[in-house]
């Protein structure tokens, strides 16, 4: 719905010659700015690189709209202080998840992330930062070494064993593999090749093993309030422009279904990101029940943003209800 609203604004800029609308469109299209921080040595550079590769804009803590705090193993007092100082929504990334234990380290890291989330109240997800941040494909020499490991497994019990134990693959290549993938990545790369994965698809397979998809889903949810408030600000600006200019198209867009639905959808994203359930049913009874429920919710002791969200859900639901009751032509 938000994209439909942005498309209508873009058409106004291009077809109707409304340069005053262009800055509003541009601000809606800006990526959410993420400030990646954490103690030295926890892997914050890897996390920042992984997010940039997937379209997120990283920024300084002063300019960031969402805080991504990178931790290792557990939450420290310094980490808790950083979360307490956050000016906006935050996400905790427990990196180096591959080192969480000898048996199924990702499962162990997921449990650690759950412990951290219960301690801080902030969404927390695990990540193997080294694999998520792979910036270019492995060269042929390293892929060939990994292919050898399929039939001649190396000793992965420790870093020293992997490099020092005799093996047909030269030690210098094993050291290079450690720098790029670490032992966890080597094991997953060998498994992928043994499953028939093409060398060109190896990077995607390793990225999937890193847990980056879970980080992206969590970050998108955490950023929902930023997108919502940005959209509401744009609508307010449009209302001012419409009144000042008296332009019929702007006045129509201010009251259009696309505008109301865009704001409602963004509000629903915020509520669902907070763990609340919103009925997305598309019948008249669903629209009415949703309006009643969220009107009641908005009257309770809720945070200001959630109060705004509930009002926008009610407004959009009532509009949908009116449309559903209109007799068909």
From TrEMBL:
Superkingdom in the source lineage: Bacteria
Protein name: Uncharacterized protein
């Amino acid at each position: 719905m938000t994209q439909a609203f942005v498309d209508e604004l873009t058409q106004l800029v291009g077809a109707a010659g409304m340069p005053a609308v262009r800055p509003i469109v541009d601000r809606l299209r800006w990526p959410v700015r993420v400030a990646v921080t954490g103690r030295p040595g926890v892997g914050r550079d890897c996390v920042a690189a992984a997010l940039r590769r997937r379209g997120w804009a990283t920024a300084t803590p002063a300019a960031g709209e969402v805080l991504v705090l990178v931790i290792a193993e557990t939450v420290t007092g310094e980490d808790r202080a950083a979360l307490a100082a956050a000016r906006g929504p935050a996400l905790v990334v427990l990196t180096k998840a591959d080192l969480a234990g000898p048996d199924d380290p990702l499962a162990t890291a997921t449990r650690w992330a759950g412990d951290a989330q219960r301690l801080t109240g902030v969404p927390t997800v695990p990540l193997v930062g080294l694999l998520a941040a792979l910036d270019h494909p492995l060269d042929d020499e390293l892929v060939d070494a990994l292919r050898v490991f399929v039939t001649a497994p190396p000793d992965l019990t420790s870093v020293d064993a992997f490099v020092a134990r005799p093996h047909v693959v030269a030690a210098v290549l094993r050291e290079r593999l450690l720098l790029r993938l670490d032992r966890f990545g080597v094991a997953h790369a060998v498994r992928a090749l043994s499953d028939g994965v093409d060398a060109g698809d190896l990077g995607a397979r390793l990225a999937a093993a890193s847990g980056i998809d879970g980080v992206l889903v969590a970050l998108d949810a955490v950023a929902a309030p930023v997108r919502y408030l940005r959209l509401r600000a744009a609508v307010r600006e449009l209302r001012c422009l419409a009144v000042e200019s008296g332009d019929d198209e702007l006045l129509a867009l201010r009251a259009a279904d696309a505008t109301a639905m865009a704001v409602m959808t963004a509000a629903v994203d915020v509520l669902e990101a907070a763990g609340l359930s919103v009925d997305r049913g598309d019948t008249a009874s669903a629209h009415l029940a949703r309006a009643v429920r969220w009107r009641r919710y908005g009257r309770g002791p809720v945070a200001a943003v959630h109060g705004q969200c509930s009002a926008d859900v009610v407004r959009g639901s009532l509009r949908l209800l009116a449309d559903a009751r209109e007799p068909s032509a």
